[in-house]
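Dear support,

I submitted the protein below through the web form. The confirmation email said the job was done, but the results page showed an empty box. After a refresh the structure appeared. I'm attaching both so you can tell me whether what I see now is the final result or a partial one.
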Amino acid sequence: MSTERLPFTIRRVENEDSLKKAVAIRHAAYARHVPEFARSLALPEACDYEEDTIVLLAEHKLDGTPLGTARIRTNIHHPLHIEESVVLPEWLQGRNLGEVERLGVGEGRIGHMVKVALVKAFFEYFEKTGIEYAVIAGRAPVDRHYEQLMFTDVFGDKEMVPLRHAGNMPHRVMAFEIATGEERWTAAKHPLLKFFRHTHHPDIDVGVASPVVTPVMAERGAQATPAAPRAPISASQGQLAAA
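What the results page shows now:
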């Protein structure tokens, strides 16, 4: 396996200053495409602090400029945000799921590079935490990017559904089986196979994974009491945007 250095780092957000950077690039990215919805993203959201959530931040090595961000939420203790709007099909019930949301990057060529690296980062995180399926929701034309990564439709072919946590904008809900990812990319001779699976990027560090209990949904059960929230970053209500 070859090693490649990137002009930026990708790390988990561990403090308020880093979260502010992530929120700034998140807001800027959404403002370019969905300015009305972006107004609700000017401040950290309550779920940025929840126990099932991590926020990734890409920063330029030279000056620490934020270049991109993504938020990962698992269903270890609580349902996914997508589940506020839809009932997932049977083949995703009782599974360890990871939802990728609030993905945003800067403009230009480096923005594209950062986006690809963030995708690698969340796949690595899912592998380390025992997540079985990545679940995403993409509005048009962003959904095509996930289709190119070999995500498949959860509902009908290219079906769009409005999502509460995304301002009720229509999104295409898609999923990716983590265990078979490399096999499928290899069979398809995917152009990102080398970057994702055969190149070590020391500048991508998703941190130490928390223990995962499987199967999550089956053990939690419909009547189970969720664990008490464990906020990785302290926050006051005044700092939070509406989730």
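Response: this is the final, complete result; the empty box was a page-load delay. Residues 108-129 form the longest helix (22 residues).
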